[in-house]
Every structure is written in structure tokens, then in C-alpha cells.
């Protein structure tokens, strides 16, 4: 009987906390991982992503040993002392993997708590819903952005990590609404970091939860007209 293989992560394992993370950040977890690799997340969100990566690895281990245990018990191998010893060993490793996963879950929840508290406490700047353009700009800024001044023309604009360019006038509108802030301690030629405020994250979160399209009701058929779907004769 072959030796037990080691678990390998082929792709990111889905965790039970993915939906909760996406709800409070307004980003899917794969995008958050990419932003973490680019170094554009603030400290609380970077810490959350690091803990979530630990959880994803732990979920991969649990899945691996669960699948292995199923394979060992599905009749593929003859029942002998070697198989029974291997099942016992796999059960022990599954228990260890589950304990690691449970610890990782608690760490993610601990890292998620302050972010959820800040999002819940942040006031929405106005009752007016965000426009589609504002949502797009906030999403782009959430991934990392800097305000630059062109050396030749002196024109200022925001350049995001995704390559989106936002005009200075649009930035001022977002700042006046309390949705974004910039770190003026950095020199303009090096780029001043622009980030969402707590109010900006709350507004973006609320906008992403609100359906943007609704299905129009189908008008009733006029009296005396044929139905739109043909009736097949038997």
C-alpha cells in the first residue's frame, strides 16, 4: 500500500468566512489577496488577508484528509492491518488539521472584528445613493491610489493600482463628501496616498448590497389576443 501523500494546495480553498469578509470590505477575497501582494492595503485589511490565507491553507488540509479517509473506506483497498493502521493515522491527521483550521477561524474573526465595527459605526455621508461612476471610483481607490502632479503641465490626477485615472475635480468631490482622504504629508511628485474613509467604505458597502437592476413586470396580455407561447397540440 502506498504511503500517505502530503496535502498540496492547488487552488485557494473556500472558507466559511469568505462571504462575511466580502460583505464588510466590498471586495471578493481573491481581489483582496491580489491587493495584499501589491502592498496597497492598510494595516487592518492586510492583517485580515494574512490571517485569511492561513485559514485557506488549513481548509485545504482538512479537505485533503477528509477525501483521503473517504478513499480508504470506499472499498478500493483490501481490509487488512495495513489499511486499518492507515485509517487510524489519517483520522489522527484529520483531527489535527481540524484543530488548526478552528484556530485559524478564530484568528480571522479577531482580525475581522475591528473592520466590521468601523464599518457599522461609520455614518453614511448622505441619503443619496452612490452613482455608478462614484462606485467605480471608490472601488478603484480601495485597491490603492495616489495623487500625482504632472511635472510639465502641473495637472493633478489620481492614478490607482488598477490603472484607472481619476481627475482632481472628481477627487475633490469625493473628499467633500467625506468618502476619501489623502495623506498630504507625502510630496506631490512622489504621490500622495488616497484611501477610503470609514464613511466611504460604509457607503460603498451599502451601494453594493443594493440591487442595481430590477426586473420589470411583464404586462398582462390584452383581452382577445393569442398567448405568446404557442400551445402544442397532442
In words, what does this structure look like?
This protein is of the alpha+beta class. The protein has seven helices and five strands. It has helices spanning 18-25, 29-38, 43-73, 81-121, 132-142, 168-176, 198-209, and strands spanning 145-149, 156-160, 165-167, 180-182, 192-196. Strands 3-2-1-5-4 form a five-stranded antiparallel beta sheet. It is elongated, with a radius of gyration of 26 Å. The N and C termini lie far apart (61 Å).
Order of helices and strands: HHHHHEEEHEEH
Query: Could you give the distance between the termini?
Result: 61 Å
Say how many strands there are: 5
Helical content class = 40-55%
Radius of gyration equals 26 Å
Estimate the global geometry from the Cα principal axes. Answer: elongated
Show unreliable segments: 210-234
Q: Kindly report the spatial arrangement of strands forming the biggest sheet.
A: 3-2-1-5-4
Oligomeric nature of the chains:
single chain
Q: Helix segment count?
A: 7
Q: What structural class do you assign from the helix and strand content?
A: alpha+beta
**Proportion in β-strands:** 5-15%
**Largest sheet geometry:** 5 strands, antiparallel
What's the mean pLDDT score?
80
Write a brief caption for the model.
By secondary structure, the protein is of the alpha+beta class. The chain has helices at 18-25, 29-38, 43-73, 81-121, 132-142, 168-176, 198-209, and strands at residues 145-149, 156-160, 165-167, 180-182, 192-196.
Amino acid at each position: 500500500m502506498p504511503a500517505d501523500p502530503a496535502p498540496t494546495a492547488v487552488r485557494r480553498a473556500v472558507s466559511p468566512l469568505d462571504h462575511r469578509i466580502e460583505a464588510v470590505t466590498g471586495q471578493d477575497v481573491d481581489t483582496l489577496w491580489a491587493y495584499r501582494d501589491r502592498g496597497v492595503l492598510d494595516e487592518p485589511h492586510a492583517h485580515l488577508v494574512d490571517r485569511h490565507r492561513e485559514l485557506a491553507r488549513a481548509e485545504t488540509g482538512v479537505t485533503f484528509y477528509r477525501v483521503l479517509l473517504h478513499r480508504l473506506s470506499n472499498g478500493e483497498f483490501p481490509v487488512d492491518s495495513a489499511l486499518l493502521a492507515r485509517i487510524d493515522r489519517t483520522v489522527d491527521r484529520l483531527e489535527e488539521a481540524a484543530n488548526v483550521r478552528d484556530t485559524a477561524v478564530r484568528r480571522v474573526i479577531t482580525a475581522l472584528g475591528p473592520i466590521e465595527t468601523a464599518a457599522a459605526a461609520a455614518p453614511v455621508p448622505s441619503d443619496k445613493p452612490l452613482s455608478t461612476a462614484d462606485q467605480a471610483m471608490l472601488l478603484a481607490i480601495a485597491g490603492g491610489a495616489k495623487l500625482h502632479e504632472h511635472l510639465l503641465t502641473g495637472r493633478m490626477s489620481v492614478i490607482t493600482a488598477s490603472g484607472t485615472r481619476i481627475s482632481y475635480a472628481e477627487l475633490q468631490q469625493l473628499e467633500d463628501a467625506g468618502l476619501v482622504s489623502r495623506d498630504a504629508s507625502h510630496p506631490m511628485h512622489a504621490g500622495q496616498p488616497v484611501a477610503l474613509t470609514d464613511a466611504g467604505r460604509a457607503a460603498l458597502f451599502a451601494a453594493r448590497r443594493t440591487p442595481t437592476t430590477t426586473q420589470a413586470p411583464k404586462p398582462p396580455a390584452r383581452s382577445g389576443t393569442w398567448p405568446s407561447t404557442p400551445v402544442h397540440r397532442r
